[in-house]
Amino acid sequence: MIPGEIFYQDEPVPANVNRPTVTLRVTNRGDRPIQVGSHFHFFEVNPALDFERLQAYGMRLDIPAGTAVRFEPGMRKTVTLVAFAGRRRVLGLNQLVEGNLDDPLVLQAAQARLASFLDGASTTRPTPEGST
User: What is the model's pTM?
Assistant: First the structure.
């Protein structure tokens, strides 16, 4: 054995087992690529990304930690989201959610902030590839 040596197993390492998930279709309606990291609260991503935001409340991308998904302008992509675990407390980001995800008052306040947040989206609306 060499100090610091890593021994890999042949089987994949299970992640996010038994956590709620949701699959969403996301379209980048902006004019620039948008990249979303693995642990960003998907409800609060760039307003140019068009999808069912309320279904993304309390969720993040179901991808390995430290990775990201890139959404090119006009592209439509299907993503799987997984529920946050642990304390389920979200602070900062785009300041839509400021507190415990399971608190109904936090959800109510986030919904109230959502409309003005989405109004900040680009008015450029490219057509997704493959649609007319």
Answer: 0.83
Domain extent at residue 42: 21-119
**Domains: count for the chain:** 1
Alpha carbons 14 and 9: distance in angstroms, whole number: 12
Q: At CA 16, angle to CA 67 and CA 96, rounded to 5?
A: 65
List pLDDT tens digits, range 59-110. 999 999 999 999 999 999 999 999 999 999 999 999 999 999 999 999 999 9
Euclidean distance between CA atoms 60 and 40, whole angstroms:
6
- For residue 14, being part of any structural domain is answered with no
CA angle 65, 69, 71 (to 5 degrees): 165
Residue 106 located in a structural domain:
yes
Please list the residues that pair with 88 across neighbouring strands: none
